[in-house]
Q: What sequence folds into this?
């Protein structure tokens, strides 16, 4: 994926709205040196335009729902962006005057401050993989590899021997469901479906289906991973959602950006040493993402892997990341690939 090229159609739409303000009767927000976008390492200087010279009692500044500070005078106010999520953020000010309040607002478009580091790979081992498996989710639990496969009428949840490719356990989904990403937490397997807006919960040992959950805010079901406390979910857009592990409700989301553009079609996910590793659909690359703000901190270029497997059709693309706990090592495969690769990640010099 061209991570350093601005995706012009999308960015143009976003930038068109940047700087727009909600109309209020008396006040507007002004940002010193306002420009189309800001880096998340910047501090912006804001003030209130008060053309009618109203006497202001106090001003409280917010970014989205987060209070950034309060002032009793209309003097320039510094707001740091370093802890903000990337993407379109809403700056607004609650202004108290003459026993009244007004809340002017302004859009801020926040990008990552640093270019992603670039990585390549070295193949350590190649293992057989079921060529009929349309891989959608991949995750290790101990020494066992678990896999979710897709396609209507062919979707399944599997337990496999990763060294031999043998399928040790296989639970098919009803033909009305298209299987997607999986993650394992607290001896439960969570599996998404694509467009059906429902996920399934299984007992890790028995594969018995013990429950289900609904996702209504996100577009679709694509990838899953977890950090032990929070479940992360991709939906095929630039968003990664956080799910409450107790009730699986979608609580919030981050948007995935580099220092120049947003990254869409985020697919299969894996949580690795504090970062989210994400396949980008139809790209031979994995993005390394900061789960706090959505910044792409690294890109692993996996060109050449697809040429080492039997090709069938256009959608036989890279999709499947599994981490076994060894630093700088990943297991990767793709949709209907006949190989599972164990690779070492190496920073490009």
A:
């Amino acid at each position: 994926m061209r991570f350093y090229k601005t995706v012009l159609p999308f960015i143009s739409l976003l930038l068109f709205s940047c700087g727009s303000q909600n109309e209020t009767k008396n006040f507007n927000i002004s940002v010193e040196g306002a420009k189309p976008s800001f880096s998340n390492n910047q501090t912006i200087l804001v003030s209130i335009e008060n053309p009618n010279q109203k006497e202001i009692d106090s001003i409280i500044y917010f970014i989205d729902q987060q209070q950034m500070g309060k002032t009793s005078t209309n003097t320039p106010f510094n707001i740091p962006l370093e802890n903000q999520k990337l993407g379109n953020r809403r700056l607004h000010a609650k202004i108290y005057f003459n026993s009244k309040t007004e809340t002017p607002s302004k859009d801020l478009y926040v990008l990552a401050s640093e270019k992603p580091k670039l990585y390549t790979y070295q193949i350590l081992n190649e293992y057989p993989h079921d060529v009929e498996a349309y891989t959608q989710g991949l995750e290790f639990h101990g020494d066992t590899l678990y896999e979710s496969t897709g396609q209507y009428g062919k979707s399944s949840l599997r337990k496999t021997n990763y060294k031999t490719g043998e399928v040790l356990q296989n639970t098919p989904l009803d033909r009305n469901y298209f299987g997607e990403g999986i993650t394992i937490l607290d001896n439960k397997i969570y599996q998404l479906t694509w467009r059906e807006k429902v996920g399934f919960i299984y007992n890790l040992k028995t594969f018995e289906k013990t429950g289900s959950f609904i996702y209504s805010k996100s577009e679709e079901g694509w990838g899953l991973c977890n950090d032990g406390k929070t479940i992360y979910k991709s939906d095929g857009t630039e968003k990664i959602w956080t799910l409450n592990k107790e009730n699986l409700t979608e609580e919030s989301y981050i948007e995935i950006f580099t220092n120049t553009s947003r990254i869409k079609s985020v697919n299969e996910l894996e949580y690795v040493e504090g970062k989210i590793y994400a396949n980008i659909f139809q790209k031979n690359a994995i993005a390394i993402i900061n789960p706090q703000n959505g910044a792409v901190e690294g890109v692993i270029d996996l060109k050449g892997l697809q040429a080492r497997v039997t090709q069938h059709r256009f959608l036989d693309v890279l999709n499947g990341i599994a981490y076994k706990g060894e630093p700088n090592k990943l297991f990767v495969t793709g949709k209907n690939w006949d190989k599972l690769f164990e690779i070492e990640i190496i920073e490009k010099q």
